[in-house]
Amino acid sequence: MRTLLLILLLAVVPFSGSQAATVDIYKGEAAVESKDAAVRRQALPLALKHVFQKISGLRSFEDYPLVEPALGNASSILVAFYYRNVTLVQADGSEVEELRLVAEFASGKVDEMVLSLQLPLWPRERDPMVPWVVVDNGLDRRIMPVEFNYVWESISNAAEWRGLPLNWPAPDEEGKFIVDDQLLWGGYTEDLGMEPGTGAMIAAARREGLVWSVRINVSYGGENWTWRMQDIDLQAALTESVQQSIDLIAAANAIAASDQGVWNHQITVSGVNNADEYEQCLAYLQKLSIVNQVSVVSAGQGRIMLVLELSAVPSYLQEVLADGGVLEQDEDEESYYFSN
């Protein structure tokens, strides 16, 4: 029965593309009361702190006492700024407008600061996560009921702030999800049929008197976690569940400060048969955050030899390439095949 339901899910429920998204980690935001220059100067350190949070995957920097003083350099590394209005939906359905300063900082200077502060580095190529929420209010059990849309928006805002892409599952034209709620209630992330390069979170929430009891199952990058939590407010419980999910995901995928630096790593790529594929291959490697520079050693007969200057130990490059779907590692694990 579960196999049949899985087939229906894959056939009917659309998802966005599963390739890793490149997160803009050098732009930070801070809520402001006005566009006054003095207010902006006060908010810039908070925007830089947001950048550090997205880059490191850390929610707080209690274990990094040098971060707070370093935020005072925000004005000196500012590249550009603008403002945007964000609509926040409250639990009672009311909306609150928030003005935010969006500040872009010099990438090279930020990278230097991250390295000097010994912060972990969460690469900006990040697999999306698909969130599923099934709610049992004591009367019925439904998948992402519309009356809790403000909760789903809160989850999206939290994930966006932390720099984790979300791919929400879409219902059919009648607003229904063609997936058994029992599958979700059981937390069977392995049965969701997710494509490679996509994670999943299942949150099963049950109303128990005045309290919401939530069980969370997360599968991401080959890791699996499960835990429970309670709160009188469903929005607070589920938003915190996403925050904790991102804590775990970032910690599992971040590059430790001790593994950061400069390494030269040679790779061979076959299956590059024309000028267009040659340019595509080089462009793909050059845009990877872990790659500082690409040098061509030799090229010919559909095969190129490259030396990559990396910002972390080569094992992290292998993980990034495995998720990218552009270069496939050969069986001998010493070369790659261009498969785009």
From N to C, what is the helix and strand string? HEEHHEEHEEEHHEEEHEHEEHEE
**Oligomeric category:** single chain
Radius of gyration: 22 Å
Main β sheet profile? 5 strands, mixed
Shape summary: globular
Helix content: 25-40%
**Which secondary-structure class do the elements indicate?**
alpha+beta
Instruction: Give the spatial strand order of the biggest sheet.
Output: 7-6-8-9-10
β-sheet strand percentage = 25-35%
Query: Uncertain regions: pLDDT < 50 for 5+ in a row?
Result: 1-18
Count of alpha/pi helices: 9
The N- and C-terminal alpha carbons lie at a distance of 36 Å
Number of DSSP strand runs: 15
Mean pLDDT: 87
What do these coordinates show?
With 340 residues, the protein is of the alpha+beta class. Helix 5 packs parallel to helix 7. The strands form 4 sheets. It has a 5-stranded mixed β-sheet. Strands 12-13-11-15-14 form a 5-stranded mixed β-sheet, with helices on one face. A 3-stranded antiparallel β-sheet has the order 2-4-3. The protein is built from 9 helices and 15 strands.
Distinctive features:
alpha+beta, 5-stranded mixed sheet, 9 helices, globular, 340 residues, 32% helix, disordered N terminus, 32% strand
Brief account:
The protein has helices spanning 2-12, 37-56, 67-70, 107-116, 149-162, 181-185, 234-253, 275-287, 314-324; strands at 21-22, 27-31, 78-89, 95-105, 125-126, 129-136, 141-143, 199-208, 211-220, 223-231, 260-270, 291-300, 303-312, 327-329, 336-338. The chain is α+β, with helices and mostly antiparallel strands. The longest helix is centred in the N-terminal third of the chain and has 20 residues, at 37-56.
